[in-house]
From TrEMBL:
PROSITE patterns: STAS. InterPro entries: Anti-sigma_ant (IPR003658), STAS_dom (IPR002645), STAS_dom_sf (IPR036513). PANTHER family: ANTI-SIGMA FACTOR ANTAGONIST TM_1081-RELATED-RELATED (PTHR33495), ANTI-SIGMA-B FACTOR ANTAGONIST (PTHR33495:SF9). It comes from Pontibacillus halophilus JSM 076056 = DSM 19796. SUPFAM superfamilies: SpoIIaa-like. This is Anti-sigma factor antagonist. GO terms for molecular function: anti-sigma factor antagonist activity. Pfam families: STAS. It comes from the Bacteria. Belongs to the anti-sigma-factor antagonist family. Residues 3-110 form the STAS domain. The lineage of its organism: Bacteria, Bacillati, Bacillota, Bacilli, Bacillales.
């Protein structure tokens, strides 16, 4: 599986929509796209994880690097809509304590 990365800019926010898998093969491409977006002063970088069906520790490393970069530029990193599997990875590593992760999707119940 591959990773598709779409970036949209609106005012002081960069919205990064991801689709696919974040692993050792795709993480460098994500880092190459994501880190420059975190260099702007006072910007918000929102990463939509709704279509990410798999992520390993290399993906976590990319988000930690992005978080450090936003702290240096007084910006904000926000992750939205992770599926349960991806969210569990953030929870068991304790990253939910330091990264802003929100579920902004509207999921209907059955």
């Amino acid at each position: 599986m591959n990773l598709t990365i779409d970036v949209a800019n609106k005012e002081n926010e960069n919205i990064v929509s991801l689709s696919g898998e974040i692993d050792a093969y795709t993480a460098p491409k994500l880092k190459e796209t994501l880190l420059p977006l975190t260099k702007g002063e006072n910007t918000v970088v929102t990463v939509d994880l709704a279509e990410v069906n798999y992520m390993d520790s290399t993906g976590l490393g990319v988000f930690i690097s992005a978080l450090k970069s936003t702290k240096e530029t007084n910006s904000e990193l926000k992750l939205i809509n992770p599926n349960d599997r991806v969210m569990r990875l953030f929870e068991i590593t304790g990253l939910t304590e330091i990264i802003n992760i929100q579920d902004e999707s509207v999921r209907g119940g059955m």
